[in-house]
Amino acid sequence: MAWAVDTCVLIDVLEADPDHGRRSAALLSRKLREGLVDWRQPWTWQDTIAAHRAWEAHVAGRRARSAPRRPIADVLIGAFAGRFDGLVTRNAKDFRRVFPSLPIAEPGRP
Asked: What 3-state class would DSSP assign to 63?
């Protein structure tokens, strides 16, 4: 299928980030063979349901004081990526708590 790409990885490459640019570019190059999802991919009802479930679980965790604050953008990105092979991101820990079964590829990791 294809991998969804978090914006932070694209910014690393586009801005030639001295700390992350080369590793992010190398990871994107490796994942390109499997396919990368671009901005034209539509948001689906399935994505909405996945986002709602993840946000509901996050809110329950916050009420129990067992979950950190989480930007809604991460919930939306993770829900969208769940429909594909996984997510390419430099911020894996931001997604793993809310989407524990989501395959994640990180720059600099095998």
From this structure: helix
Nearest to 99 by CA among 2, 9, 20, 4: 4
Structural domains in the chain?
3-105 (3.40.50)
**pTM of the prediction?**
0.82
| Token pair for 23 | 């590793």
How far apart, in whole angstroms, are the C-alpha atoms of residue 71 and residue 2?
24
Q: Give 2-55 pLDDT, tens digit per residue.
A: 999 999 999 999 999 999 999 999 999 999 999 999 878 899 999 999 999 998
Residues linked to residue 69 through DSSP beta bridges, in sequence order: none
Q: Any bridge partners for residue 88, and if so which?
A: 5, 105
